[in-house]
Amino acid sequence: MFAQSLAEVDPAVRDIIGFEDDRQRRKIIMIASESLCPKAVREALDSPFTNLYAEGYPSTRLSGSERKRVLEYDRYLAFHRRYGDRRFYKGTEFVNFIEVLAQKLAAEIFATDSIPAEDIQVNVQALSGAAANNAVYEAFVSPGDTVMGMSLSYGGHLSHGSPFNRSGKYYKVVPYLVNRKTGRIDYDEIRDLMKASQPKMVIGGASAYPWEIDWKKFREIVDEVAPGAMLMADISHVAGLVVAGLFPNPIGYADAVTMTTHKTLLGPRSAIILTTDPEKARRINTAVFPGEQGGPHINTIGAMAVCFKLAATEDFRAIQQRIVENAKALAEALKQRGMKLVYGGTNTHLLLVDLTKVDTESGVSLRGDFVSNILD
Predict the structure, then answer these.
(1) For residue 154, how far is the Cα from the chain centroid?
(2) 234 belongs to the catalytic site
(3) One of 263, 292, 346, 348 is an active-site residue; which one?
(4) Does residue 279 carry a catalytic annotation?
(5) How many CB atoms lie under 10 A from the CB of residue 6?
(6) Buried residues in 332-369 as b, exposed as e (16+ CB within 10 A)
(7) Which of 14, 55, 317, 328 is catalytic?
(8) Are 263 and 34 in contact (CB under 8 A)?
(9) 50 counts as catalytic
(10) What are the backbone dihedrals phi and psi of residue 374, each rounded to the nearest 5 degrees, phi first?
(11) Would residue 260 show up in a list of annotated catalytic residues for this protein?
(12) Known catalytic residue: 60?
């Protein structure tokens, strides 16, 4: 059983995977939250680490080591045999190397001129973006506290306080909008809302907003009118652009930075959380495990390590540059053909077309589902 191939065990599943592979190769898929996962990342994802449970965290001796010493296997295996680690399972000695390597590589690609990688604490165990965001809620706010986030209907995410999500059910949410005239975030309006509502946490970031976000301005407003409030930056959509220097980096401004790794980062389906504060890192780690979830997916963490290493290359930066260039070119071409773009354009990886402004022969208003079927 264990040596049989997929074709031998279940040809139906093999065929369906083949159909999907063919679909992705033949079509131009313009879903902003999806990407293509490099072969090396998928190879790491299909590793024996998928067999393991590894609840807990690596030893602080290993996670606190210099990047260049992380792969001194004999040294840290000796420490492991003598002192153990912070896991609730045995057989995790190599898990510790792969997790710490992923942490170090992630810190390196998000480091800035003023914040070195050594000052960035990284949790790589969150199973998804929503789980990462929920862990930040768990760590820093209590049910009933006031939280500010971009309204879902204006481009925010479900986990930023939508009433359909637990974030909108457990907390008092004050949504901020996008200025309809300018198509941009109105920081003066945010200041007024923040001053009036005194939130315990403010969320910056979006799922359907095509412009840059001014993290410095967010930080200044929080410190001015809601001192002590937590500022969380969700950069799930734009993480790859941040790494490539094409979108502002929230490190050094936000108290916690969350992101998925399978959008512009071109990695596996997972998420990470970054902070520069050791005490906040401790609270985040506790909120992820045991607060939010049990055992991490170590095979996915290995794939993330590969993803982060690729993200440090010039090839990756070139891909991100072309993504932005292509999005801008598409936006201009659509406008030249009379299409109205929501928020007026883009300088990121996504754009939105206002279908309510498109005239049809039947007089029936277009909807996204109709248009996608036509384009398909």
Answers:
(1) 19
(2) yes
(3) 263
(4) no
(5) 10
(6) eeeeeeeeebbbebbebbbbbbebeeeeeeeeeebeee
(7) 55
(8) yes
(9) no
(10) -65, -45
(11) yes
(12) no
Catalytic residue among 92, 146, 258, 260: 260
Encoded tokens for 157:
């995410």
- Helices 73-83 and 93-110 pack at an angle, to 10 degrees, of 120
Full-model pTM = 0.96
Q: What is residue 314's three-state secondary structure?
A: helix
Q: What is the pLDDT of residue 367?
A: 83
What's the CA gap between 185 and 114, in Å, rounded?
26
Rounded CA gap, 111 and 344, in Å?
A: 32
List pLDDT tens digits, range 36-65.
999 999 999 999 999 999 999 999 999 999
CA distance 101 to 105: 6
- pLDDT of the residue at 360: 81
On whether the CB atoms of residues 103 and 305 are closer than 8 A, the answer is no
42 is catalytic: no
Out of 108, 234, 255, 292, which one is annotated catalytic?
A: 234
Find, among 88, 14, 42, 24, the residue nearest to 303 by Cα.
Answer: 42
Q: What is the Cα–Cα distance from 125 to 261, expressed in whole angstroms?
A: 12
Among 14, 53, 309, 335, the one annotated catalytic: 53
Q: How far apart are CA 335 and CA 61, in angstroms?
A: 56
Residues of the chain with pLDDT under 70: none
Amino acid at 376: D
Q: What is the pLDDT of residue 24?
A: 95
Burial class, 284, CB count within 10 angstroms (exposed 0-12 / middle 13-18 / buried 19+): buried
Catalytic residue among 67, 172, 217, 269: 269
- Domains of the chain, start order: 92-312 (3.40.640.10), 317-375 (3.90.1150.10)
Cα 346 to its chain centre, rounded Å, is 20
Q: How many CA atoms within 13 Å lie on the side-chain side of 250?
A: 26
CB 177 within 8 A of CB 149: no
Q: Which are the contacts of 32, defined by CB distance < 8 A and separation ≥ 6?
A: 208, 237, 263, 349, 350
- Omega prior to 296 cis, within 30 of 0: no
Q: Order of strands, edge to edge, in the sheet holding 146-150?
A: 121-123, 271-275, 256-260, 230-234, 201-204, 146-150, 172-176
